[in-house]
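Running log. JK asked me to keep both predictions on one page so they can be read side by side. First protein, sequence followed by its tokens:
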Amino acid sequence: MEARLLNCKKGSIGINNASIERRDTIITRTGQRVHLHCQRSYVNPIVIKGLNRKSTSSAPLATPPKLRSQKQFSFQEDCLFCELICIERKDEWATEVKGRIEFARDLHAVDALYHSSCNTNFRTGKNVPQLFSPKSDKSQIKRGRPNTNDQHFLKVLDFLEDNDDEQLTIKDLVDRMKALCGDEAYSQPYMKQKVQEHYGSSILITELNGKPNVVTFRQTASTIIHNFYKESQLKKSDEDSKLFLLKTAAALIKSEIRSMPVDKNYYPSNNDILSHEKHIPESLAVFLNILFSEKDASLKISSIGQAIMQATRPRLVIEPLQLGLAIQMHHMFGSRFLVDTLSNMGFCSSYSEVQKFETSAVISKQENTSNHYDESHCLQYMADNVDHNLCTVDGNNTFHGMGIISCITPGNRKKHLFTFLG
């Protein structure tokens, strides 16, 4: 396309006025060359108004630095618009285009070239055509899922951190995300990958108590001590240093509590109640031993220690002394109010947990007594009737029944495990 001379002063003034409206630095005078099409497009008031309306933020004036490995731009070989930016568009492409124009000043003299598709896209506010777009670093390209899913994923992580005392699985996290975004939720393999990428080595995903892909935070003692050492190097007041030391000690105890093995397949047995000191970690036992002044406070230490463990992991563990005290109170007094009051204070399990235990004790499969005796044993059956609500106003809801048990002597004490009902 051949450029024509600006023979009239009116044409030069029109371009200069358009430059002011566009907030450009272009100044023309009579005798300079300009393409007729470029002049008409540049001074078009509709185009100028659209550009001014689109500009909402100032674009950077300087172009980003180029690496040595990048090719030097050539007006004779490279398209003018590719990879560049201008002030009218208020984006990256517009700024670089403006920079090249200002550098060359006379595009015709340097034999500047441009692709027709780049020219069209640039003037119509579109992006660089994909055919001529520079290749981006693959690591910087986010593929697949929209940002809304990322926001829902972060909410799922907040849910995981708020409920880290539970045995949450990858499936639980996927179900949580489905509740937020429906069918757009991640699949289980992709959710597992994203969780591992987000937390790195501080998360552990493994099988626990027969449940696959259980997510557990892994905060080791070495990590806690390392953080304490880093913080101790900072200048703090004596009060702040004391509080931070206490928090570090609490974090160490909590970390050891979380590392204790948990079996949620069965309720605690009689042996678990008798060996109560084995159910609290060493660090917690040492801490409580220092606090208690009595000579023999092993039962109190175990009781309070198990209460602390139950409060630390309320949905995951059932401590033997907590359950045993609740069953004993229910058996002796039959008061739901008493059991729930002690439970709310942290001294025993809840009344509903006692009901679950009794149900499990009834329905748990027991081995037949007849398989455990011979001629040296004596087997006797004993039965008795039971009546309930014998006298009612309307005569309904009365109960008459009979129960029968078998007794064998000499006895053989066996360990019975009651299945946990959850």
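And the second, directly underneath as requested:
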Amino acid sequence: AWDPPGDPPEAAEPPQEPLFPALAEAVQLLQEKERFKEREKEKHHVQLVMYRRLALLRWIHGLQQKVLEQQDRLQESFDTILDNRKELIRCMQHGAPCPAAAPSP
């Protein structure tokens, strides 16, 4: 049958009582899953930051080692230059012929 335009349509009956607790439980379960996912995402982010920090610290330590090795090589070269200079000055002061340059160790 046809309802005249002025009449409001009949309201749908509310769902039966057992549906509401099931729906509320489903919503609660979804919310718990979302919270769990957020916590896991935060844990993952913290682990990623810690891993990056550790990698950066290791990289810095490696650079420090390289700098120390380079400093040692430079100091050794400088010491050799100074030793050769002293020997040259000593030879020039005594008028003695300078020995042939020995290969550095």
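Observation for JK regarding the second prediction: Residues 22-95 form one domain.
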